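Bumping my old thread because nobody answered last time. Still need a sequence for this structure:
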């Protein structure tokens, strides 16, 4: 998987997503999920000649049982390879969970079994920056509030890490953090008021002025309602137009800029003009806001006449 420069590691408890704005058109996570789904299907094929431990029948190859169809969200455990036999009138016998990416992009799945991964200090060493759900959107509408509470509860157990959460669903993020989470009682007031701000950063993605103006105001309201010191950032990747961030820079803690990258077809990548990037760079400099440049877009990525001083600017939020 491509290294994301502004983080140290990823932690994917959720897979699958729904595309909701122009930046999603050539989504890297969708392409990567398709690749991982192929690998997951091959992994499952290796298990299809196992026998049911209850009745001895073969498992039905690639049969999938979907339970709880009336609720919006789904767990990976709801999807199973099942037995072809009777099993004495019992419910279809659960043989094994499907591999993580088996269900692909169009099914949004909360993988409860992945929650405790973050407690592994060898895999996630103290001090690391962790991009949460790089293969989905944490605040996707198919993820229940109960699931989100579990996610935040487990993050509270690793206050030695910095969690970076990016979403296109700023309204749901605001509602959850300002209204739902404080009323669950699962996290102390001391944590919510004083500790969460130090190790969870909240961000939105926005590709043009329209989505900047839709998402950033709701993001920055977290500072008014949740905590004035909470870290708020914007990722403008892919950058698809000229953008004015000046109305928001007094409260933004970090700005990430990047062009569209389509590894197998760079000519298809939409252009990010250098003057758009330089404008954002100058805007950030004028307000002393940390600026992180990720890459140029597509066929422009290796041009030598682009602004080297921008390319070298890879700043992070300040303590």
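Sorry it took so long. Here it is:
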């Amino acid at each position: 998987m491509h290294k994301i420069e502004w983080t140290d590691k990823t932690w994917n408890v959720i897979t699958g997503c729904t595309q909701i704005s122009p930046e999603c058109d050539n989504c890297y996570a969708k392409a990567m999920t398709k690749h991982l789904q192929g690998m997951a299907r091959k992994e499952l094929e290796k298990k299809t000649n196992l026998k049911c431990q209850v009745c001895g029948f073969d498992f039905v190859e690639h049969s999938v049982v979907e339970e709880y169809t009336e609720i919006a969200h789904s767990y990976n455990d709801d999807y199973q390879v099942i037995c072809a036999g009777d099993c004495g009138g019992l419910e279809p016998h659960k043989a094994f969970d499907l591999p993580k990416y088996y269900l692909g992009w169009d099914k949004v799945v909360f993988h409860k079994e992945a929650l405790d991964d973050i407690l592994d200090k060898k895999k996630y060493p103290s001090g690391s920056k962790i991009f949460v759900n790089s293969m989905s959107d944490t605040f996707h509408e198919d993820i229940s509030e109960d699931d989100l509470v579990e996610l935040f509860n487990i993050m509270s157990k690793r206050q030695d890490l910095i969690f970076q959460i990016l979403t296109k669903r700023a309204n749901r993020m605001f509602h959850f953090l300002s209204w739902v989470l404080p009323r669950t009682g699962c996290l102390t007031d001391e944590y919510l008021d004083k500790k969460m701000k130090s190790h969870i950063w909240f961000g939105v993605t926005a590709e043009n002025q329209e989505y900047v103006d839709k998402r950033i105001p709701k993001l920055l309201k977290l500072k008014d309602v949740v905590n004035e010191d909470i870290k708020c950032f914007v990722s403008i990747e892919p950058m698809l137009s000229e953008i004015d961030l000046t109305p928001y820079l007094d409260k933004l803690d970090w700005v990430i800029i990047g062009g569209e990258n389509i590894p197998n077809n760079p000519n298809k990548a939409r252009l990010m003009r250098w003057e758009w990037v330089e404008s954002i760079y100058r805007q950030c400099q004028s307000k002393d806001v940390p600026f992180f440049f990720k890459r140029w877009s597509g066929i422009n990525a290796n041009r030598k006449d682009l602004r080297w001083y921008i390319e070298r600017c890879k700043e992070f939020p300040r303590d």
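Residues 60-76, 88-95 have pLDDT under 50 and may be disordered. Let me know if any region looks off to you.
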